[in-house]
């Protein structure tokens, strides 16, 4: 199982990157850090700078067929920056068009909204995105984890870092089904 983790050069919530990353590794998979720029990304612990992580590949050079699933971590600034990058948005959209599973947590669905892939889908997020999701045609629910298979692919979403355990278990189930 090879999983793409797409983040902006700055602003990802560190725990929303590192816990799912470790879950993929613990499941015997290969996580790959993609970003809109090369070098290192700067993670955050809420509003404070945390660690930096090396980018494995720029999203502009990534190929959908190389991955079994996509994880979109949150953090307020991270998805806000991603949704302004055409190549990042196109990469996300292509996962839906090819039927590959996607997992997103916290503010991560902002990138899904920009990719215009939430219409008719059930998902959850940080509560402040509720109106954005509904305005984009999605069905927002307040649950620890939402798994929606009513569409071209499986979509796994969660609200916040407190939901990470359930989020990781749910997306690993969906990603493993594809890579098997």
UniProtKB/TrEMBL annotation:
SUPFAM superfamilies: Class I glutamine amidotransferase-like. It comes from the Bacteria. Gene3D superfamilies: 3.40.50.880. The keyword Ligase does not apply. NCBIfam families: PfpI. Belongs to the peptidase C56 family. This is Type 1 glutamine amidotransferase domain-containing protein. It comes from Streptomyces glaucosporus.
């Amino acid at each position: 199982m090879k999983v793409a983790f797409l983040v902006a050069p700055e602003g990802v919530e560190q725990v929303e990157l590192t816990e799912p990353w470790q879950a993929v590794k613990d499941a015997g998979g290969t996580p790959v850090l993609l970003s809109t720029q090369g070098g290192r990304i700067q993670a955050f612990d809420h509003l404070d700078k945390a660690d930096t992580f090396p980018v494995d590949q720029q999203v502009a050079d990534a190929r959908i067929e190389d991955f079994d699933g996509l994880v979109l971590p949150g953090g307020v600034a991270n998805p806000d920056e991603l949704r302004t990058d055409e190549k990042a948005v196109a990469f996300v959209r292509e996962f839906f068009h090819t039927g590959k599973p996607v997992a997103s947590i916290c503010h991560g669905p902002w990138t899904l909204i920009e990719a215009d892939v939430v219409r008719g889908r059930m998902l959850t997020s940080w509560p402040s995105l509720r109106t954005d999701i509904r305005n984009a045609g999605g069905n927002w629910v307040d649950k620890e984890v939402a798994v929606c298979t009513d569409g071209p692919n499986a979509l796994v979403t969660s609200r916040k870092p407190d939901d990470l355990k359930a989020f990781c278990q749910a997306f690993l189930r969906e990603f493993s089904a594809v890579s098997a």
